[in-house]
Amino acid sequence: MSWRRVRIWLAVWTPLLWLALELVTYPKDRPLSSGLGRVLGGFVAAHVASYPAWLPGLLALLAVAAAVLSALRGAKDRRLALALLALAVALGAWALAQMGWTHLALGARRSSVSWLFQAVALALAALAIWQWVVGHQERAGLAVEALQRTWRLFKTNRQGMIGLATLVVFVAMALLAPFLADHRYLNAGYPVGAMLAHPSLSWPRLFGTDEQGMSVLAEFIWSARISLVVGLTASAISGVIGALVGIAAGFYGGWKGEMSMRATDFFLVLPWLPLAMVLAAAWGRNYGMIILIIGITSWPSTARLIRAETLRVRELQFIERSRAIGSTDTHTMRSHILPNVLPLIFANTVLVVAIAILSETTLSFLGLGDPLNFSWGTMLRNAWTSGGASLPAWWYIVPPGAAIVLVVLGFTFVGRAFDAILDPKLRKRESAGAERVGQGQTRHTRGAALEEEP
Asked: Does some domain include residue 335?
């Protein structure tokens, strides 16, 4: 039974997700050279998983809402409701601990065991997923088969696999940054060599130094975090807004759909670069503002695409049956429209990540990025203003420029691969083209063999 595979997936991916979340907030002052004990102790450091209190609080409210809905469905989802309720309690305790209200003592310091709350929350989330799978074996089996079929098709796409391998390398580099490069090398008080020194075999000077003698390699590795976080977060915001607007506009139609599309057109022609300059001048230069700007200006294309797909899906027979039995519009959109357009949302969001990274690079290069953090765009700006382009200090310019190109190409290749998987006509056209190329090569080989015969 295919639904039982979820148990294996949860056993593999839950620890990997825990490790990734630990590395995101891992202390920056514990490189591998600091010793094994200090490195392992970093995973249980006081500020690991120390997120803002509103984040676990919001997740707790969502878990409570999901538990209530599961309880209302009947006895089949009773265990799922209990698992979600336990998850909500753990998240709520985590939020209170982050606000310093542990043991109901006023003035108590923020929790120093956030890493433990994070581990418990992940374990309970995995348990909730498994309880849903057990209670909905048929739906879970169909989902597993769809994922397996998608992965089999994805593996046959050479561009997609190249893009995926490229992204895995850069994501691993970003997560392992505390181990690969000491964060103190990003401080002008810890130069590793002379100003704009050429690359050498020494690890900190492998990519040379910048105009202050700091390690370009350390800047390159730590910049991957900012660039990827900005790109992924902004594209997630864009995907959510675009999906909501597109589904609503396509499902309702009429004046509601027209109003939604006119709002989409307004944001489509909104000049995001002048808007970024104005907002940066008003609220300061920080990456939170950059994420917000990119997110609210890059969703119109997603909305238009999802609207077109929703117009097609709403005319299918199962949508008519859903309306005939008295289903509400919200239920129809959530249970029938969304699952059918979700793969398209995912594929388009992957493509938007590349646009978001390029947008962040542009803003940082123009001096609108966060001056307290490094990104690849900030590195290019510093190289330009310091005269690195005219010297030329190629070791200061090539690494961030090549990284931007490779990451953008990686997301583009993965997005196009998903487009080919989701569009059978495109997949057949590519397969036919590959088959014609193969037949042409075979005919050429046979012709050459006949010519060589005496």
From this structure: yes
The single-letter DSSP state of residue 209 is B
**189 contacts 368 by C-beta, under 8 angstroms:** no
Start-to-end C-alpha separation, the chain: 60
As a whole number of angstroms, the distance between CA 96 and CA 202 comes to 47
Residue keyed to tokens 């690991």: 48
Sign, Cα dihedral of 332, 334, 335, 337: positive
435 found inside a domain: no
Contact 223/375 with Cβ under 8 angstroms?
yes
Residues 11 and 129 in one domain: yes
Q: What is the pLDDT of residues 4-58, one digit of tens each?
A: 888 899 999 999 999 999 999 898 888 877 788 888 888 988 888 888 888 999 9
d(CA 181, CA 185): 8
β-partners of residue 215 are 209
**C-alpha distances in Å from residue 155, one per residue of 142, 149, 165:** 20, 10, 11
As beta bridge partners, residue 209 has: 215
Same domain, 146 and 227: no
Backbone angles phi, psi at 209, to 5 degrees: -125, 165
User: Do residues 110 and 178 both lie within one domain?
Assistant: no
Instruction: Tell me the H-state helices in 269-337.
Output: 272-283, 287-297, 300-313, 317-324, 329-332
Residue 430 lies in a domain: no
Q: What pTM was computed for the model?
A: 0.84
Of 156, 175, 190, which residue is a domain's last?
156
Residues 97, 42: one domain?
yes
Contact predicate 264/245, CB 8 Å:
yes
Buried b (16+ CB within 10 A) or exposed e, 270-292: eebeeebbebbeeeebbbebbbb
Whether 235 and 318 map to the same domain: the answer is yes
88 with 172, same domain: the answer is no
Residues 410 and 384 in one domain: yes
